[in-house]
Amino acid sequence: MARLVALILAYFFLVLAIVGIIIPGLPTVPFLLLAAWFAARGSERLHSWLYAHPHLGKLLIDWEQQGAISRTSKVIAVLMLITSWIVMYHRLDNVWALAGIAVLFVAIATYLVSRPEPNKDR
C-alpha cells in the first residue's frame, strides 16, 4: 500500500513540476525533487526515467551531487518570481498581502541565487 501511495504522489508531483514550467509562480524544481523522492520509493522505473531524462535528469543530478542550480534555472526562476509578483500587483488590492509575498519572493530568490552553479568537471 505504501508503495502505491508513493507512486501516486510521485506522478502528482511530476505533473506539478511540469505545470510549473509553464505557469509563473508555481515552482518546478521543488516539485521535481519531491517526484524523484517518491519515485525512489514507489517505482524504480519512474525514478530511472526521471534521472535519465535529458532536461529533468540534469537538474536532479546537479542538485543531488552538488546542491547546485544552473545559472539558466536561476535566471528563469527569478524572472518568474518577478512576473508573478507583477501579475499579483495588478490583481490584488491588499497591500499587506503584496508586501508579504514580496518578502517571500525575495527570500526565495536570495536562496536560489546563493546556491552554487554545477561544476562542469563532474
Largest sheet: none
SSE ordering = HHHHHH
Termini, distance in Å?
A: 38 Å
The percent range for helix content is over 70%
Task: Please work out how many helical segments DSSP would assign.
Answer: 6
Principal-axes shape call: globular
The overall pLDDT average reads 88
Poorly predicted runs: none
The number of E-state strands comes to 0
Which percent range describes the beta-strand content? under 5%
Structural domain count: 1
The secondary-structure class comes to: mainly alpha
Radius of gyration: 16 Å
Structure description:
This protein is an all-alpha fold. It has helices spanning 2-22, 29-42, 44-52, 56-66, 71-91, 95-114. The chain contains six helices and no strands. The chain has one domain (2-114). It is globular and about 45 Å long.
Comma- or semicolon-separated keywords:
122 residues, mainly alpha
Briefly say what this structure is.
79% of the residues lie in helices and 0% in strands. By secondary structure, the chain is mainly α. It has one domain (2-114).
